[in-house]
Amino acid sequence: MKRTSYNKSQMKVVLLEGIHPNAKNMFEADGYTHVECYEKALPPEQLATVLKNARFIGIRSRTQLTEQILEAAPNLLAIGCFCIGTNQVDLEAAEKRGVPVFNAPFANTRSVAELVVAEMVMLMRGIPEKNAAAHRHQWLKSAANAYEVRGKTVAIIGYGHIGSQVGVLAEALGMRVRFFDIANKLALGNAVRCQSFEEAVNGAEIVTFHVPATPETRHMVNAETLAMMKPGVAIINASRGHVIDVAALVDALKSGHVRGAAIDVFPKEPTSNQEPFESPLCEFDNVLLTPHIGGSTQEAQANIGIEVAEKLIAYSNTGTTTGAVNFPQVGLPQQENAFRILHIHHNQPGVLSQINELFSKRDINIVGQYLQTSKHIGYVVTDIDRQSDESILHDLKAVPGTIRARILY
Ligand code: NAI
Question: Are 116 and 294 in contact (CB under 8 A)?
């Protein structure tokens, strides 16, 4: 382990909103022993106070890190969103302050895929409507319209992290897997890549959506695309609410063209568990409705705790920003026999040459240097051949355009 120029045990880490204890354990195991945990989000004034001398903050979806709050956190080095989304953080304000923001985009992939596979089985057997009837004391014992999934075809629209996992699991159940993706994706197992949406859905018994929210995916499921599908198709959407034109799905459910659906995401979702859920789909017994919990499992939370803490620790120890959502991406291992300095600056000409002049004036040799820029900022990691004193930090901070500079080791 390298000797660091800072004392990890004095670097305050604040973890809010009941973040999984894995995160605290990861920090402590790496020597960051000043970890403050809070079960809930904090009101803005208390948040500002707590953040005053914090070096890292971990949040989930309820904490809003606005420009004003970031202003009150001058010592903050990085932000960890222990969830998927990052729109609760003013990303540009963080970037301009030289603060990278990390999240865990794929820690719940498996959870979503498992739910989708279970829903395929439920829909092909007509379980949602049989279950609803049983709750009303009705006994629908019948094999009519109930099928095994073995040998059936599933069309996966969007073959990314989740879509490809769904494909692997579906194949293990003996299903035929087809997919359509706008990117050239490697087909896993016996999955068949289709050249068009229409080709993928043609004849499939189940169509499941795993695409991001883009203008192209808005209302991908509409009257026209539903008509391309086999009568009696089952539809699953655990991606984004706007992928389905709900009115068109309602018509197709009423006509029986769609045998049933499993929907986890909606164009308009309640913002809390106290708010009522409203959807035209509520009236259908053959639609399995879930409250956007595709990725919500204990395993996913545990994975998120590890993944985001790892990213924050890697940034703190080595300057690595791989996976940051608002920052130039630099991924570096620790270098033996070298000393590392980080410099974050406004993206303007001439900064790098001024930095290097400071090293050459001191007769310091650069053994490795990595510069990445984004629209607003430049991030340069420099490995030098000998440890320099704090005066270089003073000079680096004085280079015009500097946002912050830090000696790592
Ligand atoms: P990903 O980025 O790994 O995969 C998305 C795939 O969709 C990519 O391969 C991309 O090329 C493809 N794609 C984009 N536009 C397309 C189009 N017009 N037609 C066909 N393919 C297209 O994303 P990941 O992690 O698999 O997530 C998929 C979706 O699931 C996202 O919308 C995400 O927000 C959602 N999600 C939902 C959760 C839940 O709780 N229900 C939890 C996690 C993710």
Answer: yes
**Nearest residue by C-alpha to atom 44 in ligand 1:** 239
Alpha-carbon gap, residue 398 to 261, rounded angstroms = 61
DSSP 288-342: EE--S-TT--HHHHHHHHHHHHHHHHHHHHH---TT-SSS-----PPPTT-EEEE
DSSP per position, 96-145: HTT--EE--TTTTHHHHHHHHHHHHHHHHHTHHHHHHHHHTT------TT
Nearest to 14 by CA among 38, 33, 48: 38
Q: How confident is the model at residue 1 (pLDDT cuts 50, 70, 90)?
A: very low
Assess whether pLDDT exceeds 90 at residue 409: no
Instruction: Encode burial over 41-79: b for 16+ CB neighbours within 10 A, e otherwise.
Output: bbeeeebbebbeebbbbbbbeebebeeebbebbeebbbb
Name residue 12's amino acid: K
Q: Which atom of ligand 1 is nearest to the CA of 240?
A: 32
- The per-residue pLDDT for range 283-324, each reduced to its tens digit, is 999 999 999 999 999 999 999 999 999 999 999 999 999 999
Residue 272 scores a pLDDT above 90: no
Give the Å distance between the CA of 110 and the centre of ligand 1. 13
Residue among 162, 168, 325 whose CB has most ligand 1 atoms within 8 A, to mutate: 162
Which atom belonging to ligand 1 lies closest to the Cα atom of 185?
Answer: 9
Provide mean pLDDT across the span 255-280: 95
**Quick one: which of 109, 98, 114 has its CA closest to 319?**
98
Instruction: Kindly state the tokens that stand for 211.
Output: 């695409």
Which among 380, 320, 328 has a CA at the least distance from the CA of 350? Answer: 380
251 band by pLDDT with thresholds 50, 70 and 90 = very high
Q: Which residues contact 9 (CB under 8 A, 6 or more apart)?
A: 31, 32, 33, 34
236 bridge partner residues: 208, 262
Mean per-residue pLDDT over the chain, rounded: 95
